[in-house]
Design a protein that fits this description.
With 172 residues, the chain is an all-alpha fold. The protein is 74% helix and 0% strand. It has 11 helices and no strands. The relative contact order is 0.10.
């Protein structure tokens, strides 16, 4: 799965998902919840970038519903952002606004929110409230912001979890 994500070959990468899910099921007694969460996160990313956002949502909701504060807060946070990305891809702006309201409460309680997370949340508030003809300009401005943010050495890890630039250029 890491090879798929690093290569960006998401269309062909979706072919490995059924085998991966089969292995998760087969070894469920030997896998901790953390490993399953990370695998589901990667599966969701592959589906999102493979233009199957509805399938990505299934795995993201599974992570979001875990609601374990002590378990990989970073993955739980990025899953919420990726859920917003999937809703955006589906043009589900009503659902996007509902999710934004729910996630606002979550992000207020998160111990640390990085600049990428802040910028993504701000983008979705702006784009979901904007008239249709303004959305392209807002998205182009957001892409420029992300490119600048990617240069920040303190934000590099955030882009490993959620490659927003790739998503904007290829999936969004």
């Amino acid at each position: 799965m890491n090879t798929v994500i690093l290569s960006g070959d998401y269309k062909n990468g979706m072919e490995i998902i059924p085998r991966t899910l089969s292995r998760i099921k087969r070894y469920k007694d030997h896998l901790d919840i953390h490993k399953v969460m990370v695998l589901h996160f990667k599966i969701a990313w592959i589906y999102l970038c493979g233009n199957k956002p509805e399938k990505a949502i299934k795995y993201l909701i599974g992570i979001i519903d875990l609601n374990r504060k002590s378990l990989r807060e970073d993955i739980q946070s990025y899953s919420r952002l990726m859920h917003l990305m999937a809703l955006h891809n589906l043009s589900e702006y009503g659902e996007l606004m509902k999710a934004l309201r729910r996630y606002k409460y979550y992000f207020e309680k998160v111990s640390e929110i990085n600049s990428l997370q802040n910028a993504v949340l701000k983008y979705f508030y702006e784009v979901s409230n904007a008239p249709l003809f303004d959305r392209k300009e807002i998205t182009n401005d957001f892409l420029l912001t992300m490119k600048e943010l990617q240069k920040d050495r303190f934000e590099k890890n955030a882009f490993i979890y959620l490659d927003v630039i790739y998503w904007l250029k290829n999936c969004g």
